[in-house]
Amino acid sequence: MQEIYLNTIQDFNDYNRVETLHPLVSVIRVENTEHIQESVMHYGLYAIYLKENKGCKLSYGRTEYDFDEMTVTSFAPGQVVTVEPNPDVPFAKFTALVFHPDILNRTSLAKQMSRYEFFDYTSNEALHLSAQEVEIFQSVLAMIEQELHHAIDKHTRELIVSHIELLLNYCLRFYDRQFITREEINHSVVKKFLTLLNEYIDNTAEQKGLPTVTYFADKCCLSTGYFGTLVKTETGRTAKDHINDRLLAKAKELLQSETISVTQVSQRLGFEYPQHFVRFFKSLTSKTPAQWRAA
């Protein structure tokens, strides 16, 4: 298996055998005539791919979608991605926007990148675009590409970064649409999460410690970022909020018994130290566990 390091735009363009028009940004269209090779890609860049091989009707559970879709996947610096050949899609066909983090230096977008949580989603949580969304996506890429073919001047960087931000904001909108159209499957994930959460706090926390969002995301076979966004979209509250609510409810239930100490309650809930439990309880109720029990 070959190891491929994409630390610069030149690395990326050389790998895909295209000309470099700008040292920090590239937009390319690839339609390979060679079979996809198994490889491990090490990203030092931001990359957004519109994969065009797989336009098909999709269904999730009993929910069907009546438009052809193309798939967007996103990667961020520091991520390592394994590429495996698919016998059904032997040749790569995609459009990509790739940009080096340095182009964001001293821009407002640099401070906003944490908003775009989809860079942490895994490939099976990709964004599926409708025909209209594909048109919007490609039109923004076309604006970036037009700038890349323009002679570099004092406006180039600002315009390219603003177009990148526009594309990222459209991706946020499209993901919100996807969460809504997949309401049925999302609801089943949330239901599973809440069931697992109750079981964990009742039966597992004392042995394994406090429940975490990552634990339940893994149990639902989702990345932490996608799972968190799904739960927030479906319920209006974060997964961490749900965990804290259930911990607090269980704490109050246990504190009603005079035969169990505050330290024992903290242990039952998975807190490593009793003072951490006291701080947690007071932050949510404005009272210590002892004060709440005495009230």
Keywords:
alpha+beta, 295 residues
Number of helices: 12
Structural class: alpha+beta
Element pattern in H and E: EHEEEEEEHEHHHHHHHHHH
For the termini, the CA-CA separation is 65 Å
Query: Which percent band covers the strand fraction?
Result: 15-25%
Q: Can you tell me the residue ranges where pLDDT is under 50 for at least 5 consecutive residues?
A: 55-68
Find the count of extended strands (DSSP E, 2+ residues).
Answer: 8
- Average the pLDDT over all residues and give the rounded result: 89
> Which of globular, elongated, flat, extended, rod-shaped describes the shape?
elongated
Helix content: 40-55%
Task: Using the CA coordinates, give the radius of gyration.
Answer: 24 Å
Largest sheet: 5 strands, antiparallel
Spatial ordering of strands, largest sheet? 2-7-4-5-8
Question: In words, what does this structure look like?
Answer:
- The protein is α+β, with helices and mostly antiparallel strands.
- It has helices at residues 9-16, 108-112, 131-149, 156-181, 183-203, 205-208, 213-219, 224-235, 239-255, 262-269, 274-285, 289-294, and strands at residues 2-6, 25-35, 39-43, 46-60, 63-75, 80-83, 91-99, 127-129.
- The strands form two sheets. Strands 2-7-4-5-8 form a five-stranded antiparallel sheet, with helices on both faces.
- Helix 5 (183-203) runs parallel beside helix 9 (239-255), helix 9 (239-255) packs antiparallel against helix 10 (262-269) and helix 10 crosses helix 11 (274-285).
- The N and C termini lie far apart (65 Å).
